[in-house]
Structures are given as structure tokens and as C-alpha cells.
Design goal:
Blueprint: E1 6-8, H1 10-41, H2 47-72, E2 74-76, H3 79-84, E3 93-97, E4 103-107
Parallel strand pairs: 1-2
Antiparallel strand pairs: 3-4
Helix pairs in contact: 1-2
Length: 119
């Protein structure tokens, strides 16, 4: 089964690379320190702390793997071509007139970059 491409802007690729770098360095270091601290305490009372640290480690490693796979399958959106096109497509920037009368610009991106809470 062939995996689908992940459509990303160049900016989106750079953000993912930055996040990946941070997770691999400071993220892993923080989780390792939390695991070590929980192991040092070594009492039944802190088992929850150790379990929490291991859960954070699993989440972190899962996110690292997810980003690596996205970057492996990334297809850069040709934003310049999208801007020149008369069609609205991923990579296009559109202006929307809001009910208040103001105008807002939005760039259409693929699902991997979409963040509806930020607009």
C-alpha cells in the first residue's frame, strides 16, 4: 500500500523540522530527567510520577515518529503557482469579506498544517 503525500507549505515543513529538533533534544532530555527523578525516589508513593513520565515519553516518541513520517511523505506546495492560478487550491491565499465589512486573508493549507483554532 502506497502512502499518500502530505501537502505542506515550505513554512509548514520548517515548523515541523523545528518541532522535531526540539522534541529530539530538549523534549527527550526533560522526559529522561523526569523518569530518572521518579526512579531515584523509588517509593510506591511516587509510582504515579514514574508512570506519568513514561506516558509522556511514549507520547513524545509517538509525535517524533509522526513528524518524521510526515516529512518523509511531504510534498511542497508550489505557493507561487497557486497565487498565479485563477483557481482556488491548496497554497492559494484568499480574501474573505466578513459580515462586519472587514476583509481577512487566509492561506489554504493541507490537513497536516491546518489549525482551525488560529483561523
Amino acid at each position: 500500500m502506497m502512502e499518500e503525500h502530505v501537502l505542506l507549505t515550505q513554512e509548514g515543513i520548517e515548523r515541523l523540522k523545528q518541532e522535531l529538533s526540539e522534541l529530539r533534544t530538549s523534549g527527550r532530555a526533560e522526559v529522561a530527567a523526569a523518569i530518572h527523578e521518579a526512579q531515584e525516589l523509588g517509593t510506591a508513593q511516587i509510582d504515579g510520577q514514574y508512570e506519568d513520565a513514561k506516558n509522556r515519553q511514549a507520547f513524545l516518541e509517538g509525535r517524533i515518529l509522526e513528524i518524521e513520517r510526515m516529512l518523509e511523505r511531504a510534498e511542497v506546495i508550489d505557493e507561487e503557482a497557486a497565487h498565479r492560478s485563477r483557481e482556488v487550491r491548496i497554497g492559494s491565499t484568499v480574501k474573505v469579506k466578513m459580515p462586519s465589512g472587514s476583509t481577512q486573508e487566509f492561506q489554504l493549507v493541507g490537513p497536516a498544517e491546518a489549525n482551525p483554532s488560529e483561523g
